[in-house]
Every structure is written in C-alpha cells, then in structure tokens.
Recover the amino acids of this structure.
C-alpha cells in the first residue's frame, strides 16, 4: 500500500469512527453522556500494535484475544486485513484447527482478490498438514501409513489449489514440496489397505487397491510393493495375463523387488 492509499485509508477510517460515534450518541440520547463510550482511533492502533507484539513474542493466546477484539470493534480499520491474517496464524499456533480453518475460509470468501489471499490458501494447507503429521506425532503408536488419510488428502487438495491459482506465489514452492510428502503418505495408506485385504484373502479388492496406487500415485515409494500385491493376488486368482503384466513392470523398474515374486 503506497502513501496516498494509506492516507485515504486513514481518512476513511476516521470518518467511520466519527459516523459511528454520532450514531451511538443519537441512539443513546436518553442515556447519560457518561454512559456512552465511543471507539477511538487511538484505541484501534494501540490494540493492533499490542496484538503484533504478542505475536512476535509467541504469546498467541493474548494475541488471539486482541485480534478478535479488533475484528469485532473495528472490522474496517486500516489494518483489518492484516489483523485477520494474523488471527489465522495465531489460531494455527495454538492448534485450534477448526478456528484457523474457519478464519482462512472467511478471508478467502470476503477477499478473493486481495494481494495476500494466497497466504490464506497456504495456511489452510499448513493447518491440515500439521493436523495430519500431528503436533502429537511422538505420542502415536500407530504407523502413519495405518492412520486414516482424510486429513492428508484435504491438505494435499489445499496445497494443490494454491499452486493452481497462484503458481507464482512465494508459498507455491513450499506447497509443492509438501505435496510430494503427502502423495507418498496417501500412496502408503492405499498400500496398507491393499495388504489388509490380502491378509483377509479378499484378493480382488487387494489387487484393485494396489492397482489404484500404481495408476494414481506414480513415482512414489509405494509402487514396488503395490506391484508385488498385484502379482501375488492375480496369481492366486489365476489371472496369468494380469499377473505377468504386473510382474514385467516390476522386473523392469525394480529388479531387486522382483525377486520376491519370481
């Protein structure tokens, strides 16, 4: 925002404060003047600066209270958009996934053309990505590949939307790197399900799930094991044509792994 735009924004903000004060005074004409509290511009800037100081010091709960107050009392302040973006981040830092996602969705809905809207898309991905790998990952006994992949899929789609809409965003490259991790995670989950079907002798379901991995998650680390599931299941089902096709792909691309099904 250049100096002229800032000046215009400030003028508009003071005008809003003046109008708001006039309306409050008019609506409270029967009330004692001492009971009427008109929001002051100085209060806004003081509260905004306090919220940013709290953010910088890592005092996120305090920042949230101040930012929520700003959003409630001064929804059209000169730094209102930045305050809303800061609130997304603060919610994220205290692991309030629902509030962080709702705040990001709200910003996107209300400001689709804002120059910083890509940050809101990026934070949606970050929120779900962190929920996926878990702030408490060290407390989880189950392997990540065995956990439900719904959040991973949501995070992947969030990052994909960012990259699609804003390919030149400063957050796009990081989003792409996180998508690589998530693709491998999703592939391993599908492979886990395929192996689950194999253990229960549901060979058609196992082969179909493994084929899904090969077709939808190429170049992931789950591919060789998915091919092994396909070969094994097709052999049991006495489908030699499909078995040989999967075996040949395995031999060509993963010769060491192919030894397991020779």
């Amino acid at each position: 925002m250049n100096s002229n735009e800032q000046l215009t924004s400030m003028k508009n903000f003071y005008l809003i404060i003046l109008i708001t004060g006039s309306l409050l005074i008019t609506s409270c004409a029967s009330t004692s003047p001492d009971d009427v509290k008109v929001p002051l511009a100085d209060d806004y800037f003081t509260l905004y600066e306090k919220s940013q100081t709290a953010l910088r010091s890592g005092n996120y709960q305090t920042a949230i209270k101040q930012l929520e107050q700003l959003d409630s009392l001064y929804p059209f302040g000169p730094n209102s958009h930045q305050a809303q973006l800061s609130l997304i981040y603060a919610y994220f830092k205290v692991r309030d996934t629902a509030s962080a996602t709702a705040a990001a969705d709200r910003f996107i809905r209300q400001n689709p053309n804002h120059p910083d809207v890509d940050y809101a898309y990026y934070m949606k991905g970050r929120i779900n990505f962190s929920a996926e790998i878990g702030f408490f990952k060290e407390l989880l006994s189950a392997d990540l590949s065995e956990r439900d992949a719904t959040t991973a899929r949501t995070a992947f789609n969030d990052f994909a939307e960012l990259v699609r809409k804003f390919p030149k965003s400063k957050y796009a490259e990081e989003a792409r790197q996180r998508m690589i991790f998530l693709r491998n995670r999703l592939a391993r989950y599908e492979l886990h399900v395929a192996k689950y079907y194999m253990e229960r002798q549901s060979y058609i379901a196992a082969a179909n799930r493994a084929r899904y991995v090969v077709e939808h998650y190429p170049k992931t680390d789950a591919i060789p094991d998915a091919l092994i599931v396909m070969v094994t299941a097709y052999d049991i089902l006495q489908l030699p044509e499909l078995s040989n096709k999967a075996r040949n792909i395995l031999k060509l691309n993963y010769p060491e792994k192919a030894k397991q099904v020779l």
Observations:
- Confidence is low (pLDDT under 50) at residues 17-39.
- Residues 108 and 117 are 6 Å apart (CA to CA).
- The first helix runs from residue 3 to 27.
